[in-house]
Amino acid sequence: MSRRIVVLPGDGIGPEVAAEAVRVLERLPVDVQVEEHDFGGVAIDRHGDPLPAGTLAACAGADAVLMGAVGGPQYDRGEVRPEQGLIRLRRELDVYANLRPARLGDVDLLIVRELVGGLYYGARGTRPDGTVYDTLEYHPDAVRRIVRRGFELARARRRHLTSVDKANVLLTSRMWRGVVDEVAPDYEDVTRADALVDSVAMRLVTEPQAFDVLVMENTFGDILSDVAAGATGGLGLAASASLGDGAPGLFEPVHGSAPELAGRGVANPAAMLRSVALMLRHALDEPGLAEALDAAVDAAVAAAPTPDLGGGASTRELADAALDALVVPEASWT
Question: Pick from 241, 210, 233, 242: which is nearest to 297 by CA?
């Protein structure tokens, strides 16, 4: 059965790395139909909206969505910004679980970030005296489902879950920790630990190998996943999957649109290719192909590093190296 993949190339280097991702995907033994739609800054330019109705409808009807980065300095002072489309798309599809793996050598951790609540979605405004506020809000049900997702993922890995909060200061974190207390007895085979976000930030730098799965609220996850990426090779290697309960998943690199690199052919496509691997695993039910592609990307990064990794390979050359290293499991061809 053919699977429908919507590609949102986005802005800056997004179209360049997305093109390589599609090229690699179409070389794999999977039956997919790929279609592109405007999203982000390019959609503002063409439609006045970073998430046009047609793009949203296409995403909602897809089996998976593969996204490039969005944004650029020309939109920074505008009332309509590319990032608004991204936040709206996540909420519309209710992809509440953002998975951000980080691995290098003996480090193999997974950050599970709640994606559709918290500070980015809470009440905000300006008071008459000039005070500006953004509100961190969570309902226990929203915490419960992301915590359960974290436990399930830990159960399938090394069976250790670290719940990250700021319970010594924030009421939302105290509620979060209480929900973890409530859910943990259903996962007696998983070791659970609680840790404050500031201490986790330090340990991700000093001893990232100590972690297996970490679950946390939206803003903490946004920041700590970049810290974890920095500890394991940089943002050019960091991929993500955003999953809901039955909704099409969103798969995207963690890095930004890097407009200063756009059009030069030097952007690192590894994170985008690893996002394809996450899509194969979580949306297309192809774990063997996912493992094969991850291994090929690892080999390509070593053989043909792009300038951000200290090499001189082009975007296309790294993708070519991944294709050269790709060993597709025999069962995948049947």
Answer: 233
Q: Domain spanning 1-95+244-334: which superfamily?
A: Isopropylmalate Dehydrogenase (3.40.718.10)
Give the tens place of pLDDT for each residue, 97-137: 999 999 999 999 999 999 999 999 999 999 999 999 999 99
Looking at 138, 165, 166, 212, which residue is catalytic? 166
Q: State yes or no: is 134 an active-site residue.
A: no
Q: Of 11, 38, 226, 294, which residue is the catalytic one?
A: 226
The architecture that CATH gives domain 100-236 is: 3-Layer(aba) Sandwich (3.40)
Q: Give the list of residues 6+ apart from residue 13 with CB closer than 8 angstroms, or none.
A: 68, 69, 257, 258, 259, 261, 262, 267
Q: What is the pTM of this model?
A: 0.94
Active site residue 212: no
- To the query of whether residue 308 is one of the catalytic residues in this protein, the response is no
What is the tens place of the pLDDT at every residue in 201-252? 999 999 999 999 999 999 999 999 999 999 998 888 999 999 999 879 999 9
Same fold, 1-95+244-334 and 100-236: yes
Active site residue 166: yes
- The one catalytic residue in 11, 165, 212, 222 is 222
Whether 108 is catalytic = no
